[in-house]
Amino acid sequence: MVAALWFALLLEQGRNRAAVERDAHNEAANLARAFEEHVVRIFHDVNAALLLLRQAWGEERSSFEQMVRIIQKADGEALLVQIAVIGADGLLAYSNLDPDAEPVDLSDREHFQVHRESKEDNLFISKPILGRVSGRYSIQVTRPLLNELGGFIGVLVISLSPDYFSRFFGSVDLGRSGSISLVGTDGVFRARGSDSRLDTDSIGTRVPPDRPFLQPDAPTSGMYEADSTIDGIRRFVSYRLLPGYSMVVAVTKAVEEVFAEHERRWLRYRLGAGLVSLLLLAGAGWLARSLQLQRRFKHQLLEQQRRLLYVNDSLRILNDIATQPDGELAARLHLALALGCRHLGVEFGIVSRVSGDRYRVECCFVPPTVALKAGDEFALARTYCSITLGARDLVTIEHMSHSEYAGHPCFEAFRLEAYFGIPIKVNGAVYGTLNFSSTQPHSRVFDSSDREFLRLLARWVGTVIAEERTHNELKTLATTDALTGAMNRGSFVTEAEQEIGRARRYQQPLSLLLLDLDYFKRVNDSYGHSAGDEVLKAVAEFSRETLRTNDRFARIGGEEFAALLPYTAAAEAMEVGERLRTRIAAAPVQTAEQRISVTISVGITELVDDDDFNTLYNRADAALYRAKHQGRNRVVGDPAAPSDLAPPGSEVLTTH
């Protein structure tokens, strides 16, 4: 154990050191990216100013000086040291510091010589030099002045102060030995900040030529570790090459400072591990004592084994209940509640449904003398399940009168001493509770196996309720028309065939009504399909209200509906059809925008001995066709139906 402790400690120390180094690299890289954007923005703005000044130089002197004042005001004295013009002869032609100053020979300056020798119109950034007019160190950012033929006529200069970059240095904390530098690709420092201040001593010095960013094939950004040539401190260096400019920004962090806190922390951990090692060695002396204690706990272990066998038996029974094929939900829940009562040694088991502040008994297992049944409702606040739902987890109370809930209304009303409840979730939402209770305090300790058993039982109850709900929803979708809520054609045909067989077997009358909306296409064309849907739903609702509960009503297709009337002869069916026709004609449908009046045509026939559903349907359909042909908004019977459909002397009874 001691060896494992030290192995794990050293392994974790190495992983932590690698994480600290990685974080330092990431922080330095992010700062380098920010410094890069800062410097690029400065050079971009200075380059734009040079282009504007060069254009103004060719105009009147007053225009050029006005442009100089604008740029000075925009960039400020902290950035700009001087704006100057050098003539083609190398003499100072203009300086904003002293416009009337005597000419100064600047032909030996690198930036002048570069532009004089080059045929290209390029931006040039010089090494820091001491100004002969300003008397200050500055970085010269220059562009050539060209005549109309492209010939060299001088150099336009904006001198930048290295001190300006100290603003960025002062905004970050890299530790006492960290630094941020601006270095040319020639290896010369343009600016360097260290310890949150500008390091003026390093300006103009060179970095060693072996640095990665000075190599010809150097990537645009990178990270390396090296000793500083300025102060000899070893540092992590993150650099980025400035796109479009011969400059590099570099952010450094001292290796010693990066790992300082890490080393202090792990010194404490090593001291702690040493102490733990001593304790482990001392613990070996107590090993013999533990063997003696083992014998003492042997009896308890055997008791736990017997308890485990009991739990396994409960799980086996629950599995049998769960795998019962096609069992009724109520029966399966009743068996599960009986199992829970046996397992816990209590008398009451309930599956409840909670809606708002109401508690409803969905299924219960109680003694025969107790008047509690499915469907009974209570105020949720008067049940122990309010505690369970408030806790959102399993609640166990083994002796209620000695608990904090002794004054609960449920205890006052029913004197239930033991209570175990857990929320039931169906499809992720709280459905109600599974709870067990007893009038006596719990006779044994409620242990972890009991907890897991109740959690498993609650999950199973939630699952079977969800399955039952899904089954009912699928059954409804399979048998119901989605728009009107009426039975769909397939389900109607199935039930009609069953009713035909039943009517023939018991020699009972049965009639079929087919009803169709008159001129329904006009409704869709005039008011839109959404209004047509409202009309169909209203007609279906009127029809259900008029028909009996044992009548079958369905939407056959489009605007056509059917009603099957068991125990109904043709004459009675004619009266029903007339009530439907009158009701619909007298009740215009109120849609979102207007009231729409509709009428229906109805065809009726009655079952005869040899009829199947198709024969019965075709006769009713023929009667419906005649109702349409005779002018619509009427009820027409089938002349081939039994004679009581029409009075003596007439072929068919028609009402309109």
UniProtKB/TrEMBL annotation:
Domain of life: Bacteria
Membrane topology: Multi-pass membrane protein
Renumbered residue ranges of the record's region Disordered: 635-656
Reported cofactor(s): Mg(2+)
Annotated GO biological process: cell adhesion involved in single-species biofilm formation; negative regulation of bacterial-type flagellum-dependent cell motility
Pfam family, one: GGDEF
Tagged with keyword Protease: no
Gene3D superfamilies tied to this protein: 3.30.450.40, 3.30.70.270, PAS domain
Compartments in which it is found: Cell membrane
SUPFAM superfamilies: GAF domain-like, Nucleotide cyclase
Catalytic function, reaction form: 2 GTP = 3',3'-c-di-GMP + 2 diphosphate
GGDEF domain residues: 508-640
Keywords, ordered alphabetically: Cell membrane, Kinase, Membrane, Transferase, Transmembrane, Transmembrane helix
Single GO molecular function: kinase activity
GO CC annotations, alphabetized: plasma membrane
Claim: Acetylation is one of the keywords in the record: no
E.C. number: 2.7.7.65
Main localisation: membrane
Protein name per Swiss-Prot or TrEMBL: diguanylate cyclase
